[in-house]
Design brief:
The protein has about 260 residues and is mainly beta. The protein has one helix and 21 strands. About 40% of the residues are buried.
Length: about 260
Amino acid sequence: HIQAQITGVIVNVNTGEALPYVNIGVVGTTYGTVSDLNGAFELYLPQDISDSYSIRSSSIGFISYTLTVADARRKLPLQIELMPTSLTLPEVLVKPGFKNFDTQGNINADAKMVTNLAIQNRPNQNLGSEIGRKFHTRKPAYLQTFRFYIARNNFDTIRFRVNVYDLNGGKPGVNILHENIIMEINNRKTGWVEVDLSAYQIQVEKAFAVSAEWVYASSKGSQLGFPVTIPAVGATHFYKYGSQNKWKKFPQMSACMEVTLAW
């Protein structure tokens, strides 16, 4: 299967500025990637992919842009211009000190099953894949920390984006964040990674999902995996394989991750 390559750059239509960490991929498939710090991307497609499939580019704070595979092939290299959404950000309310804290999730790091994110030979072709978990709160609360566990990693540098979603039909729906929260991990580090979310004033209610999305990898490396517990009674695990693919939902399973809420 020879692969056809679509290359290009993604910019802000108003400023011409390069846009990093944009998800680009063929909608509803495993073919996808994420733009680099210079807005550039390389998307590999199977030779026999239909010209009528849609390639979508999407990013927090921008209107998604879609074109067909046929159009993309005619315009190489692509210059994709994204239009900012006119988001009115909520006023930041400085809250008094929190009195209640709740930590929940799965801390079983010894699970035998490991979900592997990296694809041999073409690690960047799985960028945009995400692993998440369902959480819930009885009262409106603020997210304080998110922790996840890496079982395998032989990359010098990797970056994850933390995403927080409302649930729609039991799966992650709208991303409620207004900005990218990027976490860099160096020196082939494995084990717990903790992200401090307290400064972002992320409010959650009832059930929601938090995920770690793989958005960058240095060129040398072949393994990146998360432990997954089966069965995990009452838990719900989410997995999205490919930058513009659909979410899959797995009841009674859980990645090794937890959140701390405060109110």
